[in-house]
């Protein structure tokens, strides 16, 4: 199963005091690239680090937490049910070795344990595949939204090419002057409400 890694984000608001009362006023985070992206000919090119963006994109972190919680709950359920079956098997073997069971009783208990083991394995495969499918679909949907908003970001700041830089990707090195990860992530965070609405979440 997929497990995602996430980290901290850029603060988007600050508390200020005014007229002797505590008042909260949101301060917009600057999403304009702080450096001029490198140009090749007439092309304006920039990039964002995919791993860093995922760690700082609030909506991505929220969805990752939901997926992780479901995965951990599933794993715990498997371990609990598996431990109960193992405990019953150990008890059965002890009683069998002590000759406390008739042949009919022993065969019945043995069949029951084997059936429970089979059902647990089947459940593990089916439910595990279901959770993995849901995770993949969720990530694909979020990825599509990021692509859509990257287009908006590029049009807003007249960027011709916005590349994705990630560990194990095609680019071993890109000039840091082209890096707009911080600004692009802030742009995604500021548009989170719209992204959530488009994904059917109110």
Task: Give a verbal description of the structure.
This protein is mostly helical and 202 residues long. It has helices spanning 50-56, 58-97, 103-157, 181-190, 192-198, and strands at residues 14-18, 21-25, 39-40, 43-49, 161-165. It is rod-shaped, with a radius of gyration of 27 Å.
Supply the number of structural domains.
Answer: 1
Alpha-beta content class:
mainly alpha
Main sheet: which strands, in order across? 3-4-5
Main pleated-sheet profile? 3 strands, mixed
The gross shape turns out to be rod-shaped
What keywords describe this structure?
two-stranded antiparallel sheet; disordered N terminus; three-stranded mixed sheet; 202 residues; 5 helices; mainly alpha
Question: Any chance you could write out the topology, listing elements then pairs?
Answer:
Elements: E1 14-18, E2 21-25, E3 39-40, E4 43-49, H1 50-56, H2 58-97, H3 103-157, E5 161-165, H4 181-190, H5 192-198
Parallel strand pairs: 4-5
Antiparallel strand pairs: 1-2, 3-4
Could you provide a short overview of the structure?
The chain has 202 residues and is mainly alpha-helical. Helix content is 59%, strand content 12%.
């Amino acid at each position: 199963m997929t497990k995602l890694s996430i980290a901290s984000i850029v603060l988007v608001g600050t508390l200020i005091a005014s007229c002797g009362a505590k008042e909260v006023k949101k301060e917009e985070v600057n999403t304009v690239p702080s450096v001029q992206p490198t140009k090749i000919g007439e092309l304006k090119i920039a990039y964002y680090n995919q791993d860093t963006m995922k760690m700082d994109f609030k909506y991505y972190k929220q969805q990752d937490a939901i997926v992780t919680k479901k995965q951990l709950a599933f794993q715990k359920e498997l371990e609990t049910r598996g431990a109960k079956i193992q405990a019953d098997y150990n008890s059965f073997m002890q009683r069998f070795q002590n000759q406390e069971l008739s042949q009919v009783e022993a065969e019945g208990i043995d069949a029951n344990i084997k059936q429970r083991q089979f059902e647990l394995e089947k459940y593990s495969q089916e439910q595990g595949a279901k959770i993995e499918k849901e995770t993949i679909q969720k990530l694909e949907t979020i990825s599509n939204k990021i692509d859509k908003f990257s287009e908006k970001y590029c049009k807003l700041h007249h960027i011709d090419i916005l590349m994705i830089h990630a560990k194990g990707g095609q680019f071993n090195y890109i000039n840091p002057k082209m890096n707009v990860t911080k600004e692009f992530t802030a742009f995604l965070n500021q548009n989170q409400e719209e992204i959530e609405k488009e994904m059917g979440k109110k």
